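Practice record 12: protein with IPE.
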Amino acid sequence: MHVGLIMDGNGRWATRKGFDRIEGHKSGAKVVEEIIRSCSQAGVKTLTLYAFSTENWSRDKGEIKGLMDLFNYYISRHLTEMISNGIRIKFLGSKDGLQDKIVNLINNATEKSAYNDKFFLNIAINYGGRDEIVRAVRKIAKNVKNGLIDIDDIDEKTITSMLDTSSQKDPDLIIRTAGEQRLSNFLSWQSAYSEFYFSGLEWPEFNKTEFFKALESYKSRVRSFGAVAGE
Ligand code: IPE
Ligand code: IPE
Ligand code: MG
């Protein structure tokens, strides 16, 4: 099962408590650890975390720096442990505009975990569903120009294979916290048939119990993919 997480509400949580917004992101990072640890018990094989969107660059410079430092700290700190736990780490998003330090970390984590297959962790940084499609279209156009594919052979599989998630299965369930009910440019192509769970909890308050509640809700859904429901 593949679960996507739109971890929203860190800033509101911090402001509500009288803290700086970055404190909300720090508390949120601890919740990520708890959720990753509960995935094997929950039967979740792939987890996609929405960490930073292409639109998040419009935030205050200080907050962006704080977030980038946090990614750097957490990924470096947990890399060895994640690799020895059989986790394959993949990054979704564009590397353009990211600091060299983050790009090196991304390349290193991707390379070192490439042969793992116990659990798949996708981290979406500088990710936008529309940007991902634009990049895929460019790759396809290049292949057409170079005579590698014929225009008439372009189908859904071609596009899927050019996305950052390439061979991975689409998310079965997308959870968004903090009461907002929108995708905010998350997995636009891949979410065509995903189920949704909206939690009222802000991300720093999210926990294993709420995660399991979302999964329970998912289990009761009937997914018909356009066919007659229940058949
Ligand atoms: C989600 O929390 C984390 C990121 C977008 C990086 P927010 O920072 O969006 O928190 P709110 O929505 O302002 O409360
Ligand atoms: C979505 O949250 C992006 C991430 C969780 C990384 P935002 O807080 O950026 O989304 P909007 O602006 O409320 O739609
Ligand atoms: Mg938000």
